[in-house]
Amino acid sequence: MFCVFCGKEINSDAKFCKFCGGNLSNSSAKPIADPVATSAPYVPPIQPPKKPFNPLGWIIASVVVVIIIAASSDGATSTSNNSNSTYTNNRVETPPSVPTRPDYSLPHGTVFNQSSFYMSGDGELEISNGTNYDAVAKLVIGTTGVYSVYIGANRTYTIDGIADGFYELLFAQGSDWNTVTKQFNKNQSYSTFEDVFEFETTEDSQYYYHPTFEVTLNNVIGGTAETSTINPAEFNSF
Hints:
The protein has 238 residues and is α+β, with helices and mostly antiparallel strands.
């Protein structure tokens, strides 16, 4: 039972309300009906519509993150490099190529010296230079150089008009002739034939026989002439 005055719940046989003191027996007021518990029906909250998945946005976001990380890494590297006072260049520098000058040779058969007195006979001396080096051959009698000539590599030269007498043959070999020092700049060697060449003109009742010799500056099979090394000063003294 509820009080008609204050609406509080009281005993059904009570004459006065213990809350407001109202006289329930003389009251013409209608009792307040028991309140009925009411509840509004449950209405689920309205969910906003989901946006469709857009992969382009994720790609752009990933690229931005990568750029930021790369920029941070470059900055850190730059700071680290700037803190060092010594820098190392790991690139190997190739020196520019310098064109080499080809070896110089005199024309084959260039005569340096010729004695008119000793070169007034009929003797002949054929000199074959079968090497890859140029040569200078000197014909000497006693302490006098009577003839000297430049012989190219793999070339043959004949000294003719040699007067009768006993001659020695000296020769130098090498490459890149020096016109100032009158010697080879490279691969120098100096030699002499150990045998003496005897030029003697002979005759009989019908003919004159002119002396001739053939020598090679390179070793040949069956060759009999021996050579020995001499010093440059001895060669250049003639």
